[in-house]
Specification:
Helix content is 17%, strand content 37%. It is of the alpha+beta class. A seven-stranded antiparallel β-sheet has the order 5-4-1-2-3-7-6. Strands 8-9-10-13-12-11 form a six-stranded antiparallel β-sheet. The chain is globular and about 55 Å long. It starts with a helix and ends with a strand. The N terminus is likely disordered.
Length: 319
Amino acid sequence: MKRFIELAIVLALYASATSSQELDSTTTARIELARASIVTVKVLDQQNETISHAAGFLVRKDLIATDLQLDRSSHVQVVSKAGAIRVIYSGHYFLPYVLVETQTEISPLSLGDSERVALNDPVYMLSDSGKIVSGRVTGFTTLKNTRAFSMSLSVDANNDGAPVFDRHGQVIGIAFKSSDGQSAGLAWPSELLATLKHLGEPGVGVGRGDGPQFGVSPPPTNTETPSTSGVDTRPVRLSSPAPRYTEAARANGTQGSVLMRVLVGEDGTVKSVRVTRGLPDGLTEQAIEVARQTKFKPAMKDGKPVPLWVGLEISFNLR
């Protein structure tokens, strides 16, 4: 037993050392610079007293992602390292967000590819003291129809909503606390942040309707993956069958939208589907079927078609 314990300690120390060594000077500097983009988001009461708070960070010069429960009635305050940031409004799309006055001095963080995150991959966060702390991806779970990952780094009220970095210094997730508050930390994938980045672009609304509509009125049809994808043109939806209501959905008056991420192949067909928000009464399954039959003009790079993940929304409305 003593040998087993000693071996476990050695392995733990080795894993920690290996994780630290994987960060080169360039990556370390990139994570250090990310401090300026991390903010504190507060929900205030009528007396301007803080009700709840969480971390957040810029994914666009005027858009902050966080893990704080927000809607259009929330009285929100955002504080950066340099001081208060003027809030325009807040809401919830794929994740809670705060739209703010465009920041000229603060750069949005670079997003990595969460699709490639694997078990035992190293992950990094900035601690309260400002140090870079390292951990590992310990597993995957499905929450709200989204594939989140767990990690050996703890998440509390101070770093809930903070960015999680990979070994290249890119953001691969947004940290959030486990429901019991005792388990290891969790992270929503950066693919949700990538979709959130395009909030307000033509065809992209605010999702659940609990925030003011901006952009144009048609529902989202396709959304670009992170700008790091480097494609010349995004996929364009060409055709898709009409979604079909199930008897249970009609009987229960179920309405709304199913949000998905789909992999559009080089031939314009959908190769894979991941649901990020579903509906009951069999409507999620119907939406997946529609997605699989949807045809796209594929993404192009250097004159050649390339595969790319995009967002897709299928709406169900009783008339």
